[in-house]
Amino acid sequence: MLTPAEVERIALLGRLALTDEEKAKYAQQLSAVLEYADALSKVNVEGIPPTASVLSVRGVMRPDDAPSSQIPREDVLANAPRADGESFFVQGTFEEK
Fold first, then answer.
1. What is the pLDDT of residues 35-72, one digit of tens each?
2. Which CATH number fits domain 4-41: 1.10.20, 2.160.20, 3.30.1450, 1.10.3470?
3. Is 40 in contact with 32 (CB distance < 8 Å)?
């Protein structure tokens, strides 16, 4: 198990100010994480190829998803604070109001 002094050193690296109670709490929590990582490192993975994901690659679109009729431009621009009939006007980043 990590000691409060070790947690204090880790906190120093992360520029964190911890109370004594937090040091004791994080010592337990970080120790549990390290024990789990150690258990994982002992798992036999011989013959298992590296993978980027355990999920199969698939499209996110449903088969019945297809482009449909569009909303008329006039209806879309009707809700814009400023528009010229074809596009929205937005204030530039460096412009003054």
1. 999 999 999 999 988 888 888 777 777 777 777 778 88
2. 1.10.20
3. no
Question: Is residue 23 within 8 Å of 17, Cβ to Cβ?
Answer: no
What does residue 25 show for φ and ψ, rounded to 5 degrees?
A: -65, -45
DSSP H helical ranges for 1-97? 4-13, 20-41, 73-77
One-letter amino acid for residue 90 of the chain? V
What CA–CA distance (Å, rounded) separates 78 from 83?
8
Residue ranges of domains in the chain: 4-41
Q: What is the pTM of this model?
A: 0.48
Angle value at C-alpha 11, between 6 and 13, nearest 5 degrees: 100
